[in-house]
Amino acid sequence: MAKGKVYLVGAGPGDPKLITVRGLEALRRSEVVVYDRLAGPQLLGQIGQAAERIYVGKRPDRHTMKQEEINQLLVDLALQGKTVCRLKGGDPTVFGRVGEEAELLKKNGIPYEIIPGITSAIAVPAYAGIPVTHRDLASSFSVITGHESPDKLDRSIQWDKVTNATGTLVFLMGVAKIGYISEQLIKHGRPPSTPVALVRWGTRAEQATLTGTLENIEAKVREADFQPPAVIVVGDVVRQREELRWVEDKPLFGQRVLVTRARAQASELSARIDELGGEPYEYPVIEAKMSEDPAVHEAVKAALAEAETYDWVILTSVNGVDFFFRWLELCGVDVRRLHRAEFAAVGPATAAALKARGIIASALPEKFLAEGLLDSLASRLKPGQKALLPRGDLARAWLPQELRKLGLTAVELDVYENVLTAPKDDFLLEVLREGGIHAITFTSSSTVTNLLEALRRSGAERPEELLRGIDIACIGPITAKTAEENGLTVTACAEPSTIEGLVQALVRCNQARNKRQ
Ligand code: SAH
């Protein structure tokens, strides 16, 4: 069998966007991804569902894989002919043991590539507003491991040289040894007043920074119970933070948001969350599909065969527009045959989807709800008129009922089906259990029910309880009602019912959460 290939990829410090373009390409191309906790599990959203994921990090219920076992695993997978991506936190060559992995691959004649990443040693201080060098403050920096026991540290680090050789000192894996490290640096000549910063989980929602001096930092770390992983920065550059801090000032800083809407539609919401300093966690629980039911096909065909007879085409979602046009195409119906019809859209996104197809909606309600649409059309809806309502299979019955009450003929058309997806995500339950999700967005009633079902299928017996304490932000009152009926407590509702309205609801949640803390 032909041998596979192994990409040893630096994933960057945590923010999934801080991987290199080449690293991302390798990740997407791979059939197996071997990852651990530092190598942003969220990057896994980038790989196809078919790719295998192997977690080799620490787990409470299982022993951690030893480095030798990981080395061998990479070889075994490649010998099976697979393309493998070994994702490593930060840069693979900075305390990443990539040398050992590459060595064994080489020995076995397996081709590999080492794809650099952004090391936490530089990126994490930068996210705290600390540049590791500065024209006036530090013209060099060192990156030092603090992981070993003090006597080993003494053997591997020449403290007298380290202390005095360079400007900024950056310690990785050093939190547990902070007292010892400060003591050595003072002993060998750094002033006790030298500024020190510890930055934990830099570039992620949990980013937290503690500052002090060589003299008092150990006490501060203890007092705050400041846990690893953190980067320790020692030197005058730390003072820059007072002026340069930036991440913490964004409105969604510290908030990791579960985005449940369909993958095809999630990107706009995720991009806005990201832009405002939050961390989107995409977990699409719903997907729109064309029905495979022959009865549905017949019904749509029959309805479209009478295209000339409609006075109204009323669209209540972007999906409705997309799939309606797919059906027109599939049935070979020219849109101009709907010449009599006025088009109405329930919200601006739906109207924009129509506009992209050359159709200007005649009415847009003030409130982006079916109820609002009816209000704004009221004077123009006449008994005897015929309205076509292309929609999803889960659409509410309210609008057609009201149209019928007004004497119109309402033809409901299931142009798409909402199906539940429960993407495999071993990591999500863990993150939820650890309180790592701070807010959830629901953009329709089905995202509520589907998320609960998806979590049940993933092994959560009481998903409502798992979600307790998490801010719940809903696109509108109907979705909020569904959430409440399903045992969730809604924290904020979008006003207006648009994606931007939802993002602003998240901002309100974050402000309230910051006040509570
Ligand atoms: N190869 C990695 C470093 C691996 S050693 C890199 O280049 O970044 C692991 C140590 O890196 C941790 O103990 C911690 O000191 C640091 N680290 C990695 N990611 C971090 C993050 N997001 N925030 C703070 N420290 C981080």
UniProtKB/TrEMBL annotation:
Residues 5-217 form the Tetrapyrrole methylase domain. SUPFAM superfamilies: HemD-like (SSF69618), Tetrapyrrole methylase (SSF53790). Its EC number is 2.1.1.107. Residues 267-504 form the Tetrapyrrole biosynthesis uroporphyrinogen III synthase domain. It holds the Pfam family HEM4. It is an enzyme of class 2 (transferase). The keyword Methyltransferase applies. GO terms for molecular function: uroporphyrin-III C-methyltransferase activity; uroporphyrinogen-III synthase activity. Keywords: Methyltransferase, Porphyrin biosynthesis, S-adenosyl-L-methionine, Transferase. NCBIfam families: cobA_cysG_Cterm, PRK06136.1. Belongs to the precorrin methyltransferase family. This is Uroporphyrinogen-III C-methyltransferase.
